[in-house]
Amino acid sequence: MGVFTLYPALDIRGGRVVRLAQGDYARETQYGDDPLPRAAAFASAGARWMHLVDLDAAKAGGYTLGPLLGDIAGQTGLQVQTGGGVRSRDDVARILDAGAARVVVGSLAVREPEAVTAWLAEFGGERITVALDTRQDAAGVWKLPVHGWTEDAGATLDELLPRYLDAGLRHLLCTDIARDGMLSGPNLELYAHLRGRAPGVAVQASGGVRDAADVRGAREAGCAGAVLGRALLEGRLALADALAEEQGAPC
Q1: What is the pTM of this model?
Q2: What is the pLDDT of residues 38-54, one digit of tens each?
């Protein structure tokens, strides 16, 4: 048994804190150019982890947030889970060396699973978070779009997940793209499905969390954690209230 972990999130584009609606780069909301003070505020509120995303790199490749990552890790005490544009083994090593506790691998985990399973073996399951962001099609199949959610890779969630389970996957971040940035609540049916398919994996809920009740719902659905985005940035959810749901909760 572990503890339920909250990941207050900062998505960075052009040096600014932003959110995209359903992964659409044309539907961006800006929240300021102060990511480090925001991260420090997360730590002051009692957070232990945070989630940091390089949106520029997610689209173009080449992780660019190394200096910010180093500042956050060095100055706040937060453990940082971060990704965006991870394309190679050297990218993983460089991000870990810059101060990340875990590297998030998304599009490449779908396009080149043989490479990512090798990284799990080399760096260990505790240092890699596989992000299988998903969108349900008209037939109810969970597809896995890539390249900043702009391209359909043709893979499905249920087809790819067993390969990572066999490779020693420990941390899975799964975003229901339809709910990301929409404040419509997390897709608890999706997470219950994942827990059934991968009972030994720490599943992080992402997309749609609105309030403390949604945090509680994710925990009760068996998730090991939840990513907090737009609701936190807009003051709809106080981090202290969310953290009250985190304390001592079994995953």
Answers
A1: 0.92
A2: 999 999 999 999 999 99
Contact by Cβ (8 Å): 60, 85: yes
Residues with catalytic roles: 11, 133
| Separation of alpha carbons 205 and 189, rounded Å | 11
Range of the domain at 97: 5-246
Give 159's contacts (C-beta < 8 A, 6+ positions apart).
Answer: none
Q: For residue 97, how far is the Cα from the chain centroid?
A: 20
Query: Domain for residue 251, yes or no?
Result: no
Say which amino acid occupies 246: E
Look at residue 81 and tell me whether its pLDDT is greater than 90. yes
CATH number of the domain encompassing residue 149: 3.20.20.70
